[in-house]
Each structure stands twice: as structure tokens, then as C-alpha cells.
Amino acid sequence: MNASRTPNDLAVALGQTIVGQSGVIEALLLALLSNGHVLLEGPPGLAKTLACRSLAAALEGEFKRIQFTPDLLPSDIVGTRIFDQRESAFATVLGPIFANVVLADEINRAPAKVQSALLEAMQERQVTIGPQSYELPDPFVVMATMNPLDSEGTYALPIAQMDRFLMKVNVGYPSSEDERQILDRFAVADTQPVRAVATLDDVRAWRAQAHAVHIDEKLKRYIVDLVVKTREPSKYVDYGASPRATLALAFLARGRAFLDGRDFALPDDVRAVAGHALRHRIGFNYRLTVEGMNADTVIDGMIAAVPAP
Amino acid sequence: MVRRAAGAVALMAAFAAAFAPVVRAQSLARLTVQSFTRAADTTSPKIDLPFHLILTLRVRERVDQIANLDLPMLAQLELLGDERETTTTPSGTLYRETITVVAHTAGTIAIAPATLQAIDARDGKPKQWYTNGLNLRIAGPGPQVLRTAGFIVRQVAIALLWLLLWLVGIGCVVLALVLIFRRSRRSAPVVVAPPPPRAPLPVTRSPREWAQDALTVLRAERSRQAAVAVRSAIWRMVGASDGETLGDVLSRPGTNAPTTRALLVALERSAFTYDADLDAAIDDACGALERFIESAS
């Protein structure tokens, strides 16, 4: 590994192609460093696919996109065994999930058994086809997208399955200035391919370094307090975040500290990633919608209610 | 200078009290606690008038010293002294700690209970005992008697000043007459009355004094707890509360100066970095404090 290469080189390379989505870029890097998966929610046309494709290209890794549809089968994702007539034996064909960066586009359009197949593979990092198990490549990151505007004919992900995602990122529209830059950059020419700035070995090394980032005892208590806060009785919340949220907060805070060039995490790191780690793990009830409240506003209130160490 | 030194001692004593739980060893003494109380020698102290907080502990065992006794932070009071006395008698040990403090602002101060950790000799289980808490109402100016006494003293001083002025005036007249008598052409010297004594300035601590106290503490106690306590003190100095993050504090008005920002970042590092980096982080924080003091002077 070239020690001079850092995740920030990756961020710069992605930033040259993706305009106005710095939050998505940071989320992708955090997922890489934390060895987790990301759920991206936002309207179409916000460069989610481009971001994933660019990430794979910048890492010299393999990128696969799976468009989730109601007639998709689990074998369309993980692979299947077919009979080879010449050899008179079954041969295994690996599915598109065998890639470093997998984009599961509109994950809520496929039925539950397909979602389960994907989420199980995400968790186990291996798939079993017939009698044999196959390890998924390392690094392996799934970016799943959901469109919040068009929910007809979709299969909503249960909370238990959403919990498998390390983080959920809300992708918003770019600012006017960013949109003008998009026009300048892409309206006159095709998208320039991202050049490779790091290798998969670099990612594994960064991941080890991020994992070694120190989290002080005070900060651990703060993380637990934040998660416990989500479980307190609330007008808008039926149930709070699971202990997996506690682990996710710690992983993400470490990743953010590492991105910032530190080998110790700060309360600011925890606060910055708390929304990403909590928003898909809290069970909000109907009052939130009826009263026109925003889930992020409620989460921000919870975060503000817990004093930082 | 004396006030600053007293401030530093007070801050160190407060920090020492705050660090006591960390220093606490896992091996606790076996004690039969008979009483554990705290009282103040007045329930309504006056601003700028020292008073005492008295902690009393009676145990049945005969011990030379009492360990694992934690006092709460006395953040709203200035610590002037701390006197401890352990008396051993055939019937047990009496520990008495007298803390001399002074308040500089009026209002109600709630002092949290002191705690003692020991193994209860009655059942052999580790326990924690608490004293009673204290609510002190800090009154403004002194009572009517003191105000009357002050008024009388002021009137006497004014009368003496007038007398002095009269004497000086008469002296001048006599001198002038003497000079005239001697037909001297030299003019009489101008005699200026001494200026009245200035009223004492209100007790306010400048950022420089805060930083100097913090530097003293950090140099004396190079530990995580000292770093955390100093961070908390500097947080308060810039008007932030303990529950805020570095990002919150840096976004406050008044933290734009490079030396202030560098100081806040260095203290954050010393509070949260890993143990092997702590020494370097404290050196960094001390350097940042020195630069802050230099820029504030």
C-alpha cells in the first residue's frame, strides 16, 4: 500500500465528478472505512448511481448495479446453478452481488424474499449456492436506494432489515450554485470517468487504521446515552434504536475522526454521524406524519437533549 | 497578585477534590460509620465575607487517616483554605475537615453531598455514604448593624479629613503670614490634599487569569482528569456550558482569535486522546495556554 494515499484523495477524486453531494461522498467513505452498507433515500436524478460507479472506479474495484423489480428472484442476485450439457454436470454462475461496490437500485420495489436474500448476503458476507458457500469480495459495500416520492407498488423494508444498514443518508437537491456547476460540467460533454486514486488494499489498510481510532470512555457513555434517549417514551416514537445503533455510532465516529486525520474521536464526530446511524432505526408513529413533523427534527431534538461530554 | 495566587490555589484544591474519585484505590477501608455530616457555620453567608463548611465523620475504628472521601466541586465559591483534623480516641476516630470559602455573587448555592466509600464493617459489603446537601443563601450587603457601623466609620473618616484640611489650611495661612512678615517675595508652596482612598474593584477574573490558573493546574497535575477539568474551566471562560461540543464552542462569538481556537482544540485533544498520546497532548495544551496568556497580556 502506498502510505501517502488517504481517503481524502478519494473524496477529492469523487468531488471532481459529483457536484453538490458532499454528504453522499462522505457517507460512501464512512461506509467503506466502517465496512458497512448505506441506504440512500432521495428523488431520482441526484447522482446516486454515478457516485457508486465513481467510487468503484476510483478504487479500481468492480461495480455492479441491480435494478430491483417486482419479478426479481433471489437467484438473480446471488447466482444459480445451471446444467452444462457438454460436461453433463451442474455449473455455478455467480450473481451480480459478487462485486466490490453493489448498487441495489430501488430496493423497495422487489418482494420480501429478494430483499432478504440481499440483506442476508450483506450481513454474512457470503452466499450459498447449492452445496457450496462463496465468500463475497473484500471490500464489499452495498448502496441501496429508495425513492420517497413514488411508493405505489413497493414493498417497504421492515425495521429489522433496515437495521442491517450501517447508515441511512437522505440525499437532497443541490444548491442553485451547485446546479449551475453541474450544467457547466456535464451539459457540454459526457461525464469524465473517475481516475483510480487508490487500491482495494488501501481500503483494507484504511479500515484497519479507522478501526484503531481511540474512543474515550466519556465518549462511549455519550454514545450509549444517545441511543438510550431514543428509547424514552415520546409522542412520535413507538420504539427506539437497537444496540446495533450503538455499534454503528462508534464505527461511524471512528471513521469520521480518521477522515479528519485524527486517531481519536470527539463528541463532534458522534453528533455529526448520529442522524445517519439513528434515522432508520427508530420506529416513528403516525403522529409524526399527521402533525407534519420531520423525523430528522425529532432526532435533532433527541441529540440536543443529551449533553456532550 | 495575591488574589491571583489565591485563585490558583482555590482552583487546584477544587480540581484535587474533583480528582479524588480517580485516585481512589480499589481496596477500601473497613469502617463502621457512626455519623457523616456536613454543616456551614452560617446558613446565610454574606458576599466577600469568608465562612466555613465543616465536614464531620465519626467511625468506630481507630484509623490514622480517612481515604476515599470525595468532596463536591465548589464552583461558585472561592476556596481560601482547607484544614483537616483526625482525632483518635478509644471509642473510635473523629475526622473533621474545615473548608474556608468565600462567595462573590449573591443568590442560592446548592452544595452537593460529600461521599465516602468504604467496606461496611457491619456486613462486609462495599458501600457509599453521603452527607446531607447544603443550600446556602448568599446575601448582598451586610445587616443593618454593619451598615450603621460602616456609616459611623465613614463619618468619622470624613470628619478627620476635614480636620486635616483645616490644619493644613491654618498651616498655610501661618506660613503665608510668616513669609509676609519676613517680606519674602517667594510665593507660598501649594499644598495638595491627599486623594480619598479608592473603592475596591469588583472581583472579576480576566481570561488571562483564567488561563494562568489553568496552566498552573495542568503543569502541577498532568493527568486526564486535570485536562478535562481545565477544558471545562476554559469552556466556561468563553461562555460555553459543559454540554456543548467543540464545534458548538468554536461557533460562538468571541472564539475567533487564532490563539483561542488553538487553545480550545488542544484542550479537546487532551481530554479525548488515547493514553499514550496524553503527555504530548498536555504539552500541546500548555503551549497553547502560554500563547493565549501572551496574546491576552
Q: How is this structure best summarized?
A:
Chain A contains 13 helices and 11 strands. Chain A has 309 residues and is an alpha/beta fold.
| Number of self-contained structural domains of chain B | 2
CATH class of the largest domain in chain A: Alpha Beta
* Rg of chain B computed from alpha carbons, rounded to a whole number of angstroms: 28 Å
Tell me the number of helical segments of chain A per DSSP (H or I, 4 or more residues long).
13
Order of helices and strands of chain A: HHEHEHEEEHEEEHEHHHEHHEHH
What integer is the average pLDDT of chain A? 88
CATH class of the largest domain in chain B: Mainly Beta
CATH homologous group name of the largest domain in chain B: Immunoglobulins
* CATH architectural label of the largest domain in chain A: 3-Layer(aba) Sandwich
Write the layout of secondary structure elements.
The complex is a heterodimer of chains A (309) and B (297).
Chain A: H1 7-17, H2 22-34, E1 38-41, H3 48-58, E2 63-67, H4 74-78, E3 79-84, E4 89-94, E5 101-105, H5 112-124, E6 126-129, E7 132-135, E8 141-146, H6 159-162, E9 167-170, H7 176-186, H8 200-211, H9 217-230, E10 237-239, H10 243-259, H11 267-278, E11 283-284, H12 286-290, H13 295-305
Parallel strand pairs in A: 1-8, 1-9, 2-5, 5-8
Antiparallel strand pairs in A: 3-4, 6-7, 10-11
Chain B: H1 2-23, E1 30-31, E2 33-40, E3 51-59, E4 69-70, E5 77-89, E6 92-103, E7 107-111, E8 115-120, E9 125-130, E10 134-138, H2 144-181, H3 207-220, H4 224-237, H5 246-250, H6 258-272, H7 278-296
Parallel strand pairs in B: 1-8
Antiparallel strand pairs in B: 2-3, 3-6, 4-8, 5-6, 7-10, 8-9
